[in-house]
Design brief:
Blueprint lengths: L4 H7 L5 E4 L2 E4 L7 E3 L2 E7 L9 E5 L5 E4 L9 E7 L4 E4 L2 E3 L12 E5 L5 E3 L2 E3 L4 E5 L6 E3 L2 E5 L15 E3 L9 E3 L2 E5 L4 E2 L8 E3 L2 E3 L1
């Protein structure tokens, strides 16, 4: 057993699974996994699996792990609760709450930030914070499956209007093809349910909801 997902990543290999036990994990700034550009990445997943051998980060069967980021407030930086630079990963059954924004000008924070390819995000829940739920900034062949983003509102930046807090975002670079959102729901987010502004490639939404 390891205390953090960041530590577990050192030891896991393609084809293996990290199970995350249920309960509330109250995150702080001490274990920030890395800083990438403007982002403080609390958990930075940069080790890849392989074709047919994903690295899995799964909720333990029958249990609900909740990651509370309400005390993570790095001065002058955006927050990425989970930054995924690796490929061939599968994240399943995790819940993220309370992701913060500390910058008063134009900015954003993100619960799950995908920059890799061939990743699968399944049954993730992102709610009651200031951040975008799940964002694909780059990478191809990613599937976001049966995920929920709700009650997210940025009350800090740009006068607290919440204008950058979407449920799901896709701003794919050239070559970021075959990305799919399937069976996802977004509600009570202060900006858009799904925001594909400034995308260089198409992305597909199948059987998804956006309301309130």
């Amino acid at each position: 057993p390891f205390a953090t997902i960041q530590r577990a990543q050192r030891y896991v290999a393609p084809g293996e699974t990290v199970f995350i036990r249920g309960g509330t994990y109250r995150m702080n700034e001490a274990p920030i996994g890395g800083r990438v550009g403007a982002y403080a990445c609390v958990t930075l997943l940069d080790k890849s699996g392989a074709p047919g051998q994903r690295i899995n980060y799964w909720a333990y069967p029958g249990e609900q792990p909740v990651f509370d980021f309400s005390q993570v407030k790095p001065a002058g930086q955006r927050v990425a609760a989970f930054r995924v630079n690796g490929s061939w990963l599968h994240l399943k059954g995790l819940e993220v709450v309370g992701v913060q924004v500390t910058i008063a000008t134009h900015t954003q924070s993100i619960c799950f930030d995908n920059e890799g390819s061939d990743n699968l995000y399944e049954r993730l829940s992102m709610h009651d914070g200031m951040a975008i739920g799940l964002w694909i900034g780059a990478g191809a062949n990613n599937l976001v499956l049966n995920c929920d983003a709700y009650r997210n509102h940025d009350s800090v930046s740009e006068g607290g209007r919440g204008g950058n807090t979407d449920g799901f975002g896709y701003h794919g670079l050239k070559g970021s093809v075959n990305n799919v959102f399937r069976g996802c729901r977004a509600w009570f987010n202060s900006d858009d349910g799904y925001d594909f502004i400034n995308s260089d490639e198409a992305c597909r939404i199948e059987n998804c909801w956006a309301f309130y």
